[in-house]
Amino acid sequence: MTLTAVALNCTLNPTPAESSTELLAQQVLDALAEHHVTGSMVRVVDHDVRPGVDLDMGEGDAWPGIREQVMASDILVLATPTWLGQHSSVCQRVLERLDAELSEKDDEGRLQTYGKVAVVVVVGNEDGAHHVSAVCFQALNDVGFTIPAGGVTYWNGEAMHGTDFKDLPETPDAVASTTKTLAANAAHLAGLLAANAYPPSADG
Questions:
Q1: Where is the NADPH-dependent FMN reductase-like domain positioned along the sequence (predicted)?
Q2: CA 55 to chain centre
């Protein structure tokens, strides 16, 4: 079975700036590739994603094109840095735009995101990854995505320190192991859901 993934990199830094978030998100895509999942990356800040909760916020809005990539994929990798102990404003914009999926249903009343798996990537130089992943998990589940066991990988530098993930000489073993587990579980779950759809909605 051929599966696909798209990573939405919610760094605040536009291309060509280096991005720790992109580095760890790419490691997730590389780990997914070991399970025959083809992946791509979108740096959201490079695109004019308008504020709002509709599928299309009008002329110039880049979200409809990004949404097409999300809807064409089996796995969404939502990757965010941590700022002030929170997910980035770009990540919040993505979550707000995904709110429109609550109105998009198939002929059997299921959200069109049903059957799609979502995982989260968090980087930062302070603690907060558990809080950020909890917020993202709840939002993603609200709009129809399924979260696998071990659905987050993250790196936090020690408190009061300025080292970024991209500046480490190598990826810590614990992060690499967690990323591999995330990829294995996400690919497994996506395969199961692709072969066995959720039942029709009771209120469909």
A1: 6-150
A2: 18
**Would you tell me the crossing angle of helices 173-195 and 20-33 to the nearest 10 degrees?**
50
End-to-end CA separation in angstroms for the chain:
29
In angstroms, what CA-CA distances link 180 with 11, 68, 102?
22, 27, 31
Contact between 150 and 185 under an 8 Å Cβ cutoff? The reply is yes
Q: Which residue's structure tokens are 């079975």?
A: 1
CATH superfamily ID and name for 3-195:
Flavodoxin domain (3.40.50.360)
Q: State if pTM tops 0.85.
A: yes
Q: What is the dihedral of CA 189, 191, 192, 196, to 10 degrees?
A: 140
Q: Alpha-carbon distance 87 to 82, whole Å?
A: 5
- Provide the residue type at 40 as one letter: S
pLDDT digits (tens, 9 = 90+) for 72-108: 999 999 999 999 999 999 999 999 999 999 999 999 9
The closest of 135, 136, 134, 130 to 154, measured between CA atoms, is 130
Token pair for 101: 């999926």
Query: 3 in helix, strand or coil?
Result: strand
Letter for the amino acid at 63?
A: W
User: Does residue 49 sit in helix, strand or coil?
Assistant: coil
Q: Where are the alpha helices (DSSP H) in the chain?
A: 20-33, 63-71, 89-98, 129-142, 173-195
Instruction: Inform me whether the pLDDT recorded for 127 exceeds 90.
Output: no
**Amino acid, res. 33:** A
